[in-house]
Amino acid sequence: MNLVTCKLCGRLFSATRGKICVTCLDEIDDLYPKVREFLRDHSKEKYNVEQIANGMDLDIRYVQALVELGYLDRGVGADPEAEEEKRRKEALARQLQASLENSASTKLPETMGKMYGQQRYGTGKKK
Ligand SMILES: [Zn+2]
To answer: Where is this region: Disordered (predicted)?
Structure first.
């Protein structure tokens, strides 16, 4: 297993999807709608990563991660609904992947249940 240090929280995790751990990816997923809302509220102004971080009182590294992961770059000025839909699908796919990886290493029944729930949620949302 290839362990790396998460660039956001500094914890060691098995590097399967880049340099950010699953926990932080979850937080970023959480953060994204809020940042987008913030940008929508301030659409008259141009915002960069630093200004978003300051304006929302966030850790700038998380805002940077949003950009690096492709959340923000296209989100700003693009059709928010289409972006949201696309992001959601990608996030679900990633969460599912993460759950599979988690359950493979821990084998907790709880994790299995959660994974199943996400799977059902994922297919249920699809039209
Ligand atoms: Zn992390």
So the answer is: 100-127
Mean of pLDDT values over 59-83: 73
In one letter, which amino acid is 33?
Answer: P
| Cα gap 2→15, rounded to integer Å | 6
> 124 CA distance to ligand 1 centroid (A)?
29
Of 73, 23, 25, 78, whose CA–CA distance to 49 is shortest? 73
pLDDT tens-digit map of 100-122 = 888 766 555 555 555 555 555 55
Triad 7, 12, 16: Cα angle to 5°: 80
Contact yes or no for 11/23 (Cβ under 8 A)? yes
Segment 46-54 mean pLDDT: 87
Strand partners, 4: 13
Question: Looking at per-residue confidence, does 81 or 29 come out higher?
Answer: 29
